[in-house]
Amino acid sequence: MMDNISGIKKIMNVVITGMAAFMLAGCTVAKSSSGDGTKQDKDSVKIGVNMELSGAAAGYGNAQKQGIQLAVSEINKKGGIDVNGRKKKIKLIMRDNKTAISTSASVAAQLATKEKVAAIVGPATTNAGTAEIPNITKAKVPSVSPSATDPNYTLQKNGKVQPFVFRACYQNNFQGGSAAKFVMNNIKAKRVAVYTDNSSDYGNGLAKAFKKTYKGKIVDSQTFSEGDKDFNAVLTSFKAKKVDAIYVPGYYTEVGLIIKQARQIGIKAPIVGSDGMADPKLVQIAGAKNASKIYYTTPFSTQVAAKDPTASKFMRDFKNRYHEEAPTFSALAYDAVYMIKEAIENEKSDDSAKITKGLEQIKDFTGVTGKITVDKDHNPEKPIAVEELINGKVGKTFKIE
């Protein structure tokens, strides 16, 4: 669902440059998922978690941690994963990558080669996920990211699929295009301003996809960066241009302030965004009274989920365990664990290379975020929705075809 918080520290650019050659070489070590991978003992299956539990993306990472732990607890209470007729409990090994690509790479190496996990859940962000690819590829250990949305995340430089990289969320091209369709068909906005978080590939990718699909007039296109606090000058210019809607692809930290300041200067037009807004902190920042006519694309709608037996059970169990409503990122991470379970049971093996094959072949898997089929590029084919906020609460939910 989301990309990297890439504006965290400019010094990381040095790390990226230094790792680039290593990544390119490492990503081509294994050309297929055939052959032996890591082995598990007779009583348990080790699943690693490489997650942003601190740093700029900790809000997303900790929500995903909750979904992972709930899934593992449920599976273990039922005896564990059925591995060719033998029930084996999940042993969860969780590590914090600190929202840093260098740490993510070292965490992946530790999980894959020292701990010898069968599979990894995470990271949450695209760049942290990309950093782990050389190490998981060399070890033939698959990874399922709940929320890395950059279109190129699962692909090598030559366009071929990364053999051990999967995700439980849809990619930015689909999400940005769906937002454009919603703005045209539901809001019927003919004049739109685009206000993009340009400090990450997440915001830029969504904006590009939106502009490609939207058929009305884009009257203005401006950018902001992670950590910005004052958006009044740009918003005032949008107001003068009498926009029908504003598309703001970014994270809740900045989008919450944009909503608050837009409403304070009298902008009443709908504000539309992406799944980076799908966090309760958005309303805390914006203020409930300002959070009306706010829309965002999401893979997990609580209203849609309430009508689905699998999703509604997840929502009840989550609330009983954590005493709060289940956020989108917890649902995606929960599905990621169950995708790994599905792959193990279908292949009747917890060898990591065999699990990879099982993930490739997932079809019509019933997740809490909808039916999931993994395509040739290791992306899930699944439904998307748009939620509307009214006074800070979810009002209507729209399905986007």
From TrEMBL:
Superkingdom of the organism of origin: Bacteria
SUPFAM superfamilies in the cross-refs: Periplasmic binding protein-like I (SSF53822)
CDD domains: PBP1_ABC_LivK_ligand_binding-like
Limits of the Leucine-binding protein domain: 44-390
InterPro entries attached to this UniProt entry: BCAA_transport (IPR051010), Leu-bd (IPR028081), Peripla_BP_I (IPR028082)
One Pfam family, short name: Peripla_BP_6
Keywords (A to Z) from UniProt: Signal
KW Signal (keyword) present: yes
Protein family membership: Belongs to the leucine-binding protein family.
Name of this protein: Branched-chain amino acid ABC transporter, permease protein
Organism listed in the record: Lactobacillus kimbladii
